[in-house]
Design a protein that fits this description.
2 domains; Rossmann fold; binds guanine; six-stranded parallel β-sheet; 11 strands; EC 3.5.4.9; three-stranded parallel β-sheet
Length: about 280
């Protein structure tokens, strides 16, 4: 058997198209504001991608690029100003922050109604009570990808490998809300292979290249690979990327997301959708 490839770009485009349509029906253009401190190349590149996608679907986008010497009180003052500005629909502070700034305090300062990352403790709580207004982007993007390819979720046994605050734990809440039976496994789980072999739906978000090998997967399972690991350089000097799932899993699984080009594009598309969701609520 060779797995169907659940390619991210068409699913991401469908989400972006929906965001564009919904934004066009609002009385005011949704505005995404991104705060970035310092010039870390990865952060600069992620933030410019977010801005490009926002502009592509007709949203406004403002990047507040501050020096990495910005103090915590200065950053909190900016967040307060953007919280109070009715023209700002969505607000995020790009992570990681310099060591002299407490990210917890910063994330809690963002208005939960504008928190398009879904990282505020109020939004984390709402996710578990089932009133998720703004779900975190990567796990919500995984669910959107499964929906796009009509992968059934209700009643299936989902095994999530990885318990991070931004992927594993919130994804468990989202799949539970969709009536999956959910198990979370992690680095201290004993007998990982016997658990992963039970999964109808296996989602891996650990950050360990090729952790999941074919014998760990039930024939016919759907496998979602959230891992992005740099594994050396290609001949042209570009970083070579590998997922958490070994490519040979394609011989066993019914469907598999590729790396790159699987879950990755869904994260930014969901961020754009979250900005529209925030604007819809704020303008209602
Ligand atoms: N840095 C890497 N990924 C993310 C993300 O999803 N949100 C924010 N705010 N920072 C990040």
């Amino acid at each position: 058997m060779s797995a169907a490839i659940l390619s991210g770009p068409p699913a991401a485009q469908a989400l972006l198209d929906e965001a564009r349509d919904r934004a066009a029906r609002l009385p005011h253009r949704p505005e995404l504001h991104v705060v970035r401190l310092g010039e870390d190349p990865a952060s600069v590149s992620y933030v410019s991608l977010k801005e490009r996608k926002a502009l592509e679907v007709g949203l406004g986008s403002t990047v507040h690029a501050l020096p990495d010497t910005t103090t915590q009180p200065e950053l909190l003052a900016l967040i307060e100003r953007l919280n109070a500005d009715p023209a700002v629909s969505g607000l995020l502070v790009q992570l990681p922050l310099p060591a002299h700034i407490g990210s917890g305090a910063v994330l809690e300062a963002i208005s939960p109604e504008k928190d398009v990352d879904g990282f505020h403790p109020v939004n984390v709580g709402r996710l578990w009570t089932g009133d998720a207004a703004l779900p975190p982007c990567t796990p919500a993007g995984v669910v959107a990808l499964l929906d796009y390819y009509r992968v059934p979720i209700a009643g299936r046994w989902a095994v999530i490998v990885g318990r991070s605050t931004i992927v594993g734990k919130p994804l468990a809440a989202l799949l539970l809300a969709r009536d999956a039976t959910v198990t979370i496994a992690h680095s201290r789980t004993q007998g990982l292979a016997s658990l992963t072999r039970q999964a109808d739906l296996l989602v891996v978000a650990v950050g360990k290249a090729h952790l999941i090998t074919p014998e760990m997967v039930r024939p016919g399972a759907v496998v979602v690979d959230v891992g992005v690991n740099r594994v050396g350089l290609s001949k042209s000097g570009k970083a070579r990327l590998a997922g958490d799932v070994h490519p040979d899993v394609a011989e066993v699984a019914a469907a598999l997301t590729p790396v790159p080009g699987g879950v990755g594009p869904m994260t930014v598309a969901q961020l754009i959708m979250n900005t529209v969701l925030a604007a819809e609520r704020l303008q209602a």
